[in-house]
Description:
The protein has four helices and twelve strands, in the order H-E-E-E-E-H-E-E-H-H-E-E-E-E-E-E. It has 182 residues and is of the alpha/beta class. The protein has a domain at 26-64 and 80-97 and 123-178. A six-stranded mixed beta sheet has the order 1-4-7-3-9-11, with helices on one face. A hairpin with a 3-residue loop joins strand 5 (81-86) and strand 6. The longest helix has 15 residues, at 2-16.
Amino acid sequence: MRILAVAAATSLLVFGANTEQHREIEKRYPTQPSQRIEINGFTGSEITFRSWDKNEVYIKVDVSISSSDNDFERKYIESVAITDEQSPQTLAVTFRESERWRRGRDSFWGIVRSIFSGSYLRKEISGEIYVPRSNAVVTDMKYGSIALENMKGPLRLLGQGNTLKLKNCSAVLEIENNYGTT
Length: 182
């Protein structure tokens, strides 16, 4: 019984002291019906992609991270951004994570090091993305939910692991959704 109490107290000290960092990002982009909309870099099981009747792309995401390294959390949250490139033909919106903060944790040795050091990392991106029904849309979204209805513009959905719900979309050009549901 004593060992159990010591283990519980130690767990609270080690894991309970760390708080999660989060940041909310909200963007609005006016569009023209002739513009192709490209949505890139968004990954997350809690991101929902929808269509609407406004001539605007609306994005609202909450990025949260919990790690055994508080400094890493802070730097990661400061580094995430949504960037855009606009022209009369295209609006390209991209979710960016600094490569500098991903590099050591995504490699084989980075994973091995984290296992044996007792470190942990949990990252979640949640939110919603709305696109106009009349525009051409291309996305590479992964592990999210895409629910598009009455889309008139051409669609290229080139993601992975998504839950797709398309209703009355008359111009579907390409769907790639390995390991997802349609």
